[in-house]
Amino acid sequence: MQALSESTYLVLLALTKKPLHGYGIIKKIEKYSDGELVLAPGTLYGVLTNLQKQKLIELVAAEKESRQKKIYKLTTEGQAVVELEYQRFKKMLTISDEILRGAEDDEEI
Amino acid sequence: MKKFNFTLAYDIEKEAKWLTDLSAKGFHFYKYRWGFYYFEENPSKSYIYQTDFQEASDEYFELYQEAGWEHIQTEIGQYHYFRADKNNIGDQRIYSEPASIKGMYKRMLVFYAIIFLCLVVSQIGILLTWNGNLLSTSVAIFAGAVILLYIYLFIKLLRQMRRYEKLI
Hints:
The structure holds two protein chains of two kinds. Chain A has helices at residues 6-14, 22-32, 41-53, 76-101; strands at residues 20-21, 57-59, 71-74. By secondary structure, chain A is mainly α. The longest helix of chain A is centred in the last third of the chain and has 26 residues, at 76-101. Chain A starts with 5 loop residues before the first helix and ends in an 8-residue tail after the last helix. The relative contact order of chain A is 0.16. The mean pLDDT of chain A is 89. Chain B has two domains: 2-89, no CATH class; 98-165.
């Protein structure tokens, strides 16, 4: 699997606990990053369109026909993709930690 | 105030900057018609202007509005003019990553490529009924000029895409 863009990952992550509407996703990411990451509406709209095409997210069934706000949720595949990406980040972090904090004893390499 | 300006697709960021600069001077764009931009004066305000290009939906406009962008106008169904109060929006813009700006220019490229193909197909008749008279020659020259303009547009759009590709 190709690494996801930062925005794509954040959108998937925001939807892991419960379904949200578009602006709810922006607010959630903003809140959890202490206001540091504010996804712009154009970027979010593009990500939502792509994720729907890839069937990683879908509209919550009851909302499909109504005029209310569209609510998005992860598909089973979407869940799996977030989990994979999360594991990848974790691994990168572990490697980073080991290199950054490790002693400089690489002579045998 | 009313100002005439001619903007081609690939220059919409320049256009937005022009509108933002004028707004900082107290002239706020509120309407576009046939190349004319209409401004209302209010020295106490200052807006950031942004133009987007895409197939819109109700959800799209709602999302932009919630994020603080006031929709001003839509042209040919694809160009959407927005503005936001400079003091409220801060550094935010309608796109927060280069990949999505590149995507916008790509949508433009596809949109104009389809129009271009339709134009070319519609001109095939001239070639088929070619008889070298003044009329068919002048139509061919005109069609040639239009084709060159489109090629220029495509090159410019590709260049914009490459510019943002490098920032990804």
